[in-house]
Amino acid sequence: MIERILSIDIGVHTFNNSNLKDVKYFSGSLELTFNLFYGGVKSNILVAFEWIHSFRVTDEGDLLKMQDDLNGQMIAGIYTVEGSHYLSWFNEQSSNIHDEESIKHYLIVTGDDVIEVLSSVSPTITSC
After folding, report:
1. pLDDT tens across 21-48, in order?
2. How far is the first Cα of the chain from the last one, in angstroms, to the nearest whole number?
3. How far apart are CA 123 and CA 128, in angstroms?
């Protein structure tokens, strides 16, 4: 299965020149805070998932195969992943008990980190 990423429109915010500032996980919810630097202005963005099944954070420099497989498409931003190897692994590990749920693989890319989230709930994105 070949992975394909689809960009999520996040409005006026851009993830160019961004970095992960904070990760908070509690009882199935996940909050990710990012520093954004745009036009000389620094701001913070909160990406929050009310419920997640799994997440992982990896230094982008350690994902050389993923970057190669995606042919340079993995640039700073927020995406969903079709044909996800991570979601396939999760479904296998959970004996497909979540087949009735619509779990999506979200990919958040900064200049330093790649955050992957499996969730059946879309994230909310707000300034903070």
Report:
1. 999 999 999 999 999 887 788 889 999 9
2. 38
3. 15
Q: How many domains does the chain have?
A: 1
**Which domain does 76 fall in, by range?**
4-127
Helices (H) and strands (E) in the chain, counts: 2, 9
Q: What pTM did the predictor assign?
A: 0.87
Measure Cα distances from 114 to 15, 43, 97, 120, 128 in Å: 12, 20, 27, 19, 21
- Which tokens hold the place of 115? 């955050």
Check: CB of residue 72 under 8 Å from CB of residue 87.
Answer: no
Q: Under 8 Å CB-to-CB from 47, ≥6 apart: which residues?
A: 31, 32, 33, 34, 78, 108, 123, 124, 125
